[in-house]
Specification:
This protein is of the alpha+beta class. It has two domains: 14-187, no CATH class; 197-368, no CATH class. The protein is built from 14 helices and six strands. It has helices at 14-25, 64-70, 123-135, 174-181, 190-196, 202-219, 227-244, 250-260, 263-269, 278-291, 294-310, 314-327, 332-342, 347-368; strands at 32-39, 46-54, 80-86, 139-146, 154-157, 164-166. Strands 2-1-3-4-5-6 form a six-stranded mixed β-sheet, with helices on both faces. The chain starts with 13 loop residues before the first helix and ends with a helix. Mean pLDDT is 84; it is low at 98-116.
Length: 371
């Protein structure tokens, strides 16, 4: 994900950098590898994308660096990276029962991994990633380890045993104040972020499902050539009301939910992520994701994921896509967005896709005589 802040914040000390990581991601990571790309080393170095991934199985770290280089970081053209490992325990849950394709070495023993290490945990993982990056021409500017990101936690460098210290308070960091001023929220964990897009309650979803059935019968009574135009007006009117602070009734929200279930309407609505009403539109998509039954969920969750990704909120985009994958794993736009995130496609490139999708949808409507 790209950092969600336009304000310039200088980070020169490892303790300050570690305190900034949750705000750069949008949540406090645990048992994670965090990669920060660094650019413009010859002038004023700046951060590019911030990537977080679960720690791999300790017996499957061969090729992990190559995966990062050719996958999520392949398009970033980083000159250097900073590697941060958060967590002490090996991720044995990722190993499963089989170790096919594992690195060469002694048999994997869950009870003895890292017991004999005197330095920071996961040193072998860092060594292999650094080697992969070096072969690809990407320098490792720093490699840090911390058990968790909180005030006072002890951090260490992988390369220098005398390079260590305590993390500054993440809540008091300059970037925290800047993020708050920009309206961004840093969550305590990824689970808290998932709760943001979770259904309000089973009762709410069941009630909305019943209402949607009635609305569908009401709105599909005979052929209506002007339906798409009316659906678009419904969507944009709801966004305008949300932007003005006016409350929408549940029926209003459900009419929007039905409207964007038409992929032509949805594709045009993607363009709202590019304009002044982007925040209001995203607020509406988020409210609808929490009410939507499974059949209507995918399109509005895709709208939320797209909007969040364009703003640099990669973590929010990811949990929105998880909702789609739980209900419609073959959903086309959901798959495309997931592939874009995993390939590290910049949000600016996705913005071009949104404009193209909206233009294609308008052309289809013109051909049908509905525009």
């Amino acid at each position: 994900m790209t950092t969600r802040l336009n304000t310039t914040i200088s980070l020169t000390d490892p303790a300050d950098l570690l305190a900034a990581v949750p705000h750069m991601l949008g949540f406090h990571p645990t048992d994670s590898l965090v990669v920060l790309t660094v650019h413009d080393l010859a002038h004023t170095p700046r951060f590019g994308v911030t990537l977080r991934t679960d720690l791999p199985c300790p017996m499957r770290i061969c090729g992990f660096g190559e995966y990062l280089i050719t996958g999520p970081l392949g398009r970033q053209h980083a000159e250097a990276v900073i590697l941060i490992v958060v967590g002490a325990k090996p991720n044995v849950d990722a190993c499963g029962d089989a170790c096919a394709g594992a690195c060469q070495g002694p048999p994997f023993n869950r009870s003895t991994v890292d017991e004999c290490d005197t330095g920071p945990p996961h040193a072998e993982l860092i060594d292999m990633i650094c080697d992969s990056f070096s072969r690809a021409g990407v320098a490792t500017a720093h490699a840090l380890w911390v058990p968790e990101i909180r005030a006072g936690a002890q951090w260490q460098c992988y390369r220098d045993p005398e390079c260590l210290g305590e993390i500054a308070d993440p809540q008091a960091a300059a970037i925290a104040a800047a993020m708050a001023a920009a309206g961004s929220v840093t969550f305590g964990s990824r689970d808290e972020l998932r709760a943001l897009v979770a259904p309000e309650s089973a009762e709410t979803v069941a009630r909305c499902s019943a209402k949607l059935d009635l609305l569908t019968e009401e709105l599909t009574d005979g052929y209506d050539p002007n339906k798409v135009i009316r659906d678009l007006r419904t969507v944009f009117a709801a966004i305008e009301r949300t932007a003005s602070g006016a409350a929408l009734t549940e029926d209003d929200q459900l009419r929007v939910l039905l409207a964007v279930s038409d992929t032509r309407v949805r594709d045009i609505a993607l363009g709202t992520a590019l304009g002044d009403a982007a925040r209001a539109a995203e607020q509406l998509w988020l409210a609808l994701v929490r009410k939507a039954p499974d059949p209507e969920l995918a399109e509005v969750a895709a709208l939320l994921a797209f909007s969040a990704y364009l703003r640099g909120e990669g973590a929010l985009a990811g949990v929105a896509l998880e909702r789609i994958e739980q209900t419609q794993p073959e959903h086309r736009l959901g798959l495309l967005l997931r592939q874009a995130m995993e390939a590290g496609i910049p949000p600016t490139d996705l913005a071009v896709i949104a404009r193209d999708a909206a233009e294609d949808a308008r052309m289809m409507l013109e051909e049908d005589g509905a525009w």
